[in-house]
Amino acid sequence: MEKESKMEGKRNNKILIVFLVIMVVIVLGLVGYIVWDKVLRDVAEEEPPVSTIEPTPTIDVTPDMTPSPEEEEVEISLELAEQLYNMIYDWEECGSGLFEYYQYDKILANDFSNEYKNHIVKMNLYSSNYKDGTTSNGDPIYTLTTIMNVKNRVLGFDTSFELIASSGCKNLNSIGDNQYTLDYSCGGRMCSPSVRTKFERTIQKGDKIYLTQLVLFEQSENLESGYTSFYYQDYNHSNLIATEEFADFDDYLVKYDQFDWSKYENNAGIYQYTFQTNTDGTYTFLQLERLR
């Protein structure tokens, strides 16, 4: 009987322990819920902090199509265009020296032969009013400094150049002490131009001047039956554009200045000269380029 009483007591103790454990779990659950409800949920529901970093402003990347003064095209006078062209045009040879370079797609000042560079310098010395003195015969005297200044102005400082001095007509003759004379009084020779040219467009854009030139390369045939001119688009005479008949050579000379460019401008060769405008009011040749 006593044994059964002890067993019953142990059973009651276990039930009590289980009950206490359950109560502890319930209490802990209630505490946890209260903590979440009062603290954690309030924190979770708070609004996120406002960023103090200012947003990057939107940049309008639409290009401004208004041309700047450096990009605006300004038409220049035909007189200035001729002046620039004559800086490198060998007028005494009807352009035969310059036109040799029309066979290339692009020519820079350094691409001219040293002989032609000397020719350009002599022409610009002769056509200028400046001189360092005169000889007893009235021929102008130029110092080496003056000669190099002309070369730098017309062809550029970086263009290679070796002065050719020799005696004779239209040459720079050394008289010592880095001084030279230039005699053009010996006259010229008759020449016939083999290339017809016409300025189509003469503009300045920024500090550059562009001379766009229509070009026809001419080859003639003088027969008893008459005089015929053949007009080509290219230097090598591979693209014949048209032919023109004349009664004879005299008829050709009479009508030479009456040439009708409107017949050929759509098929003629096109070349463009580029010159640099300098701050001192002078100009420098930069390049000659074939466009068509």
What does this structure look like?
The chain is of the alpha+beta class and 292 residues long. Helices cover 31% and strands 27% of the residues. The protein has helices at 2-45, 78-86, 96-99, 114-127, 144-155, 249-255; strands spanning 73-75, 106-108, 133-134, 140-143, 172-176, 179-182, 195-205, 208-223, 226-232, 240-246, 269-277, 283-290. A hairpin with a 5-residue loop joins strand 11 (269-277) and strand 12 (283-290). Helix 4 crosses helix 5 (144-155). The chain is elongated and about 150 Å long. The chain crosses the membrane at residues 15-36.
In short:
By secondary structure, the chain is α+β, with helices and mostly antiparallel strands.
Instruction: Give the biggest sheet.
Output: 8 strands, antiparallel
Beta-strand portion reads 25-35%
Helical coverage, percent range: 25-40%
Number of helices: 6
Radius of gyration: 46 Å
H/E element sequence: HEHHEHEEHEEEEEEHEE
Task: Characterize the overall form.
Answer: elongated
Which structural class do the helices and strands define? alpha+beta
For the secondary structure, the number of strands is: 12
Q: What is the mean pLDDT?
A: 83
Ranges where pLDDT stays below 50 over 5 or more residues in a row are 58-63
Please give the alpha-carbon distance between the first and last residues.
131 Å
Keywords: Membrane, Transmembrane, Transmembrane helix
